[in-house]
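F.,

This is the one I mentioned.
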């Protein structure tokens, strides 16, 4: 007997597979562009994976003025100075002085008390000077006097004197240094401490000529100049180098002008420039421009 045995393959049974979900889906707090990659279905895999790329998180500035910068930032403390202090960069110059009306004898003042005009005709004790409060015992000063010698008369002069001086004949005044004496118009002689020095800076033949005066109270010397001529009428005299100066007496000094009293003297005048306006001449090096009050 022929027996044929056919074995049949058992039927397919199911294979269990675990499908694992991601632990937690996290929502990003910050906003931004989310760019998804292409979704690919893998037939060999039971599960499908979704790959995604989160774009760069853009931080909003805290306010309109804030700037977001990349990289590390090192902060440093900015310390404010405890006290703001003033630094002196310049010294304010004192206002220039004028003729002092309280010292005027037979003289009227005008032009801001810079123009002194003689009114007397009989007395030699006539003139005006700067106030004693502006007297100097040290320092170097430069000022100018412009002449308006319209009449005649002796003892007409300009220069410096002590604060205790009066106005008699200038040749006899022992505490002054002036140009003039017998008449600034006629001689231009230089007198100092009651003595004629024998130096003349020349005759003032025209109205409106300028007398320049350089006074060195540190070395007790004085220089006069007529117009653009040499100091003390010398080619070597120089206030800047303390050469060729005339010796002056010690004391508290002020600028002065003197008028002699005689017929026709009234109307003679001097206009002072103690630094309130530009000078006609050059101020010597090292000298103060004008006579401070």
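My design for it:
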């Amino acid at each position: 007997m022929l027996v044929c045995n056919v074995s049949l393959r058992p039927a397919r049974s199911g294979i269990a597979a675990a499908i694992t979900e991601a632990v937690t889906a996290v929502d990003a707090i910050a906003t931004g562009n989310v760019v998804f990659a292409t979704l690919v279905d893998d037939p060999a895999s039971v599960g499908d994976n979704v790959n995604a790329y989160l774009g760069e998180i853009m931080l909003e500035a805290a306010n309109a003025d804030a700037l977001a910068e990349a990289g590390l930032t090192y902060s440093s403390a900015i310390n404010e100075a405890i006290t703001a202090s003033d630094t002196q960069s310049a010294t304010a110059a004192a206002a220039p002085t004028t003729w002092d009306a309280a010292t005027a004898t037979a003289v009227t003042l005008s032009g801001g008390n810079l123009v002194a005009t003689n009114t007397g005709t009989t007395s030699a004790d006539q003139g005006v000077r700067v106030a004693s409060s502006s007297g100097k015992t040290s320092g170097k000063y430069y000022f100018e006097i412009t002449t308006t010698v319209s009449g005649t008369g002796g003892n007409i002069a300009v220069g410096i004197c002590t604060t205790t001086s009066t106005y008699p004949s200038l040749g006899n005044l022992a505490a002054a240094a002036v140009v003039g004496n017998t008449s600034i118009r006629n001689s231009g002689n230089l007198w100092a401490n009651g003595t004629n020095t024998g130096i003349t800076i020349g005759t003032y033949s025209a109205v409106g000529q300028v007398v320049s005066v350089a006074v060195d109270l540190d070395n007790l010397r004085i220089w006069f100049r007529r117009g653009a001529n040499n100091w003390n009428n010398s080619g070597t005299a120089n206030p800047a180098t303390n050469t060729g100066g005339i010796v002056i007496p010690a004391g508290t000094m002020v600028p002065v002008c003197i008028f002699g009293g005689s017929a026709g003297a009234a109307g003679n005048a001097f206009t002072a420039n103690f630094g309130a306006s530009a000078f006609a001449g050059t101020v010597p090096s090292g000298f103060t421009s004008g006579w401070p009050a």
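DSSP finds no helices and 16 strands in the chain.

Talk soon.
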